[in-house]
Structure formats: C-alpha cells, structure tokens
Design a protein that fits this description.
The chain is mainly alpha-helical. The protein has 21 helices and three strands. The protein has two domains: 146 residues, no CATH class; 329 residues, Neurolysin, domain 3. Strands 1-3-2 form a three-stranded mixed β-sheet.
C-alpha cells in the first residue's frame, strides 16, 4: 500500500507540473503571444496534453488505484484516491486522438475569435465555433453516454448540477429578476439617471488597481496583474497565480481586477496539505465564481466601502462625485448589452440567455448558423434591446471559443453562493460594516480561508456552503439580497 500511495502522489505532482506548464502557455497566448505564433502554440499545447493524457491513462496508475480502493484508507489519502480514480476513469474514456484534435481546435478558435472581435464580424468565427460545438458533443458522449450532451458537460463544471435543476432555478430567477427590474424602471430615480462617466488615464488606473489589490491582501510575490482582451485568472503553481484586466474604461478595469483577484485569493488559500494532488483545486467553478462575485459586488460595490474608500479613489478621478453619489453611480441598474459590465440585477439575465443558447447548441436543437439570431431575439426579450453589432452580442465572450460549454451557469450559481456568504458574515462577523468602510479585510479573508478556500476539493461545493452558511444553494436568499440592496437605492 505504501508503495502505491507513493506512486500516485508522485504521478499527481508530475500532472500538476504539466498542468502548470499548459496554464503558462495559455496565459501567454492571451496576453503577450504574437498572432503568428498561434499554430506553433497549438502544437505546444498538444504536446503538453499528450503527456498529461499518457500519465492519466497509464495502466500502472489505474492498477495502483484499484489496489488502494480495496484498502482501508483515511483522511487525505482516502479523498485523493476517490477523486483521482474518478478522473482517471473519465480520462480513459476519451481517445487520445480526440483530445489532440480538441486542443488544437480550441487554440485556433480562440485566436479566430479575437480576430473576429477585431473586425466585429461573427461570420469569421462561425465555422470554428461549429467545429468546437461538434467536438464538445462528442466529448460529452465519451464522458457519459447515458446523459444528454449538455448534462455531461455541465457536470464537469458544477458536479451534481443538472439541466433540469438549473432550468427550474433559472425560471424562478428570470421571473424574480424581471420583476425587480420592472419595479426599478418605474421609479423617478431610474428615469432621471444617466450613465456614469469616469475619466482616468491608464497609469492612474494601474495605480488605483495596485492600491486596492494590496488592501485585498493580494501577495505581490505570488501574483501578477497583466492585460488581456477578456479578463481572467489562472493558477500556474501554488505560488504563481496570475490575473488580468483591461484598461478600456476605468470602472471596468477596476471591478474586473477585483473580480479576478477574488479568484486568485481562493487559489492562494487552498490548504497546502493538498498541494500537488487532485484536491488542490476549487470544489466547483460555481464556488470559485462566488469568490469573485463576493469581492466585486458585495464588497467593492457596498455602500460602506465607498463611504470610506472614495476619498482615496477620488485622488485618481476627474469627476464631481460624493461618496454617496458614487455608490449610486456604480450600482445603477441599467439593461445593457455587455455581460461583464452588467449590474447585479440584470447580470443573471445575461447568464440565463447564454445558458439557454449553449444548452440548445450542445443538445442539437439550435444550429450555430442560427445562434446569432437566437442571441439577438433573447436580448430583445430579456432586456428590450437589440445588439447593433456582433461585439455587442454573440462575440462578446471567449468561453465558447475555448470549449467552455457549461461554464456560464456557474456565474449565477456563484452569485447565489456569494449572497449567502455575505448575509452570513453580516450577521455573524462583529463590526462587518466598519471593516468594509475602513478596508480592513483581514477578518473577512481569514473567514473565507478557514471556511471556503482551505477546503479545496475535499468536499462538494454545496456541502462547503451549507457547512459555512447554514444551507446549500438558495436562490431565494439571493433575490432577497438584491431587493434589500436595490429597492432602497431607487425608492430613496
């Protein structure tokens, strides 16, 4: 048994190293890589994935896991064997040649997506998206032929979630969110509001972001902040977690950096006892998103935060705001085209739109050729808006180019979890509002590390939230949070 345990831990360390190399290639691809390097990068990623595949599917690893599963294990060893066995079985179901084709396809698709965005032309990307959709359907069949394709892919991001549960949850949220938006639209404040305009040069944007990341306790010797078309975070190793933002709009860059820093803090807080094992990852993508949504919305768009932080922020801004007026400005509810710039209330509708389209694409009830029209139709239905360009519509997100079908719903699952965390902290953490006002985030981060981050993948996400906050996924708590925050803003 000891020999088998030593072998599986050594294999996992090699796998984590290879994943880190692949992540580094992916980070470089989206930040600094020259455009003409795309083909070579696809070959490099293919080689890394080949090495991962060979290690994951080796008979020696499976034989060791079979023997260990017959033993009585405890603690970390038991959890590692359980999770690793599950991953190995799944990997062995997917042919290597297929994995190679998928890797090269998404690298090329992501590069084409960027080019299509540059030219604001979905037609340039369509054929690549059709190929990605085709391959993801095949992958779903390899993963679990007994499930509908989308169900299999969704489970990869949010284990235990099903399209049936998600559709029920989203039907409830759709009704509630539209009701809240309609109520807000009927208020004098809504009819009199104007888009917030903040002018800040890029060097000042970088300075203010550096300042807020420091307050969030982002360690400068373990993290970096770069620039990309679409902000993201990525872990290369236990001491190398990178985030990006973009400097197109000062508020966009500010909140995007905070959002991605929330992801990074999660990765940095996973218990080191799980390092270089299958447990050294988030319990689910939804739980990961809860951390970014918590910091971006519950903290950085909190009234107490701006009452204390605005004088520092105002040093960088050429605009005539007060702390109170700025709080209202950054929390304006305004149906809009772009998901990443959406307010907390309408954001969920952006996710529901994407969920409905990607579910139908993968399950075969919607063709890629019709996806743009479906997108525009749903934008009209949910927001009473019609995109005037592809960049305002179907080209705005990179997820499908990267093959991440099943990812979008995790944003709303994360928002629900984040509201539960916020409500729990508000009730149980002494002087919570004062901490936010003076940006003393140490107690908040300590609670998150102890109750969320440190768990890694040692337990299901919903169990982590239930243990930390008293109940599992609770959409009603999210709706109540939105009402408690936004109705007073607009009925003032």
């Amino acid at each position: 048994m000891k020999k088998d345990l030593s072998f599986i831990y050594a294999t996992q360390k090699d796998l984590c190293t290879l994943y880190g190399i692949g992540a580094l290639l992916g980070w470089d691809e989206r930040t600094h890589m020259p455009r003409k390097a795309v083909s070579a990068r696809a070959d490099q990623q293919k080689l890394i994935h080949d090495l991962i595949y060979e290690k994951m599917t080796a008979d020696k690893l499976l034989d060791a896991l079979h023997r260990l599963r017959e033993k009585t294990l405890s603690g970390k060893d038991n959890l590692v064997v359980k999770e690793l066995y599950k991953d190995v079985i799944k990997a062995r179901r997917i042919p290597q040649a297929f994995c190679q084709e998928l890797v090269k396809t998404v690298v090329m698709a992501q590069a084409t997506w960027e080019a299509a965005r540059y030219k604001n032309n979905f037609a340039l990307f369509r054929k690549h998206l059709e190929k990605v959709v085709e391959l993801k359907r095949q992958e779903a069949q390899f993963i679990d032929p007994d499930k509908k394709p989308y169900a299999a892919l969704l489970n990869e991001f949010e284990e235990g979630m099903t399209p049936e549960k998600l559709t029920d949850l989203f039907d409830y949220l759709k009704k509630e969110l539209i009701t809240i938006v309609d109520h807000i639209k009927g208020t004098p404040r809504y009819s009199g509001q104007t888009p917030v305009r903040v002018v800040m040069k890029e060097d000042r944007q970088k300075a203010v972001i550096g300042e807020i990341l420091k307050k969030m306790r982002m360690p400068s010797n373990r993290t970096s902040c770069d620039v990309s078309t679409h902000p993201f975070s990525i872990k290369l190793s236990e001491n190398d977690v990178r985030i990006t933002t973009r400097y197109l709009d000062p508020l966009d860059s500010f909140f995007a950096a905070i959002h991605e820093a929330g992801h990074a803090l999660y990765e940095l807080g996973i218990s080191k006892k799980y390092c270089n094992t299958v447990l050294f990852y988030a319990a689910s993508v939804g739980l990961h998103e809860s951390q970014s949504r918590f910091w971006e919305n519950m903290i950085a768009k909190n009234k107490s935060f701006w009452s204390g932080y605005f004088p520092q922020f105002a040093r960088y801004v050429d605009a005539g705001f007060t702390p109170e007026s700025f709080y209202y400005a950054v929390n304006q509810v305004r149906p809009s085209f772009i998901r990443v710039n959406a307010d907390e209330v309408t954001y969920g509708l952006h996710i529901i739109l994407r969920y409905e389209i990607e579910r139908d694409l993968i399950d075969g009830t919607l063709s890629v050729a019709d996806a743009k029209d479906a997108w525009n139709c749903k934008t009209k239905q949910y927001f009473n808006l019609i995109p005037s360009s592809d960049n305002e519509g179907i080209l705005q997100d990179v997820h499908w180019a990267g093959g991440a079908f099943g990812y979008f719903p995790t944003y709303t699952i994360g928002s629900i979890y984040a509201s539960q965390i916020y409500n729990h902290l508000e009730k149980t953490l002494p002087d919570f509002d004062r901490m936010i006002r003076v940006q003393n985030f140490n107690p908040v981060l300590a609670w998150l590390r102890a109750n969320i981050h440190s768990k890694g993948k040692s337990m299901p996400a919903d169990d982590i939230i239930a243990q930390a906050c008293g109940s599992g996924l609770n959409p009603k708590e999210f709706v109540d949070y939105l009402r408690a925050k936004f109705i007073p803003i607009y009925e003032r």
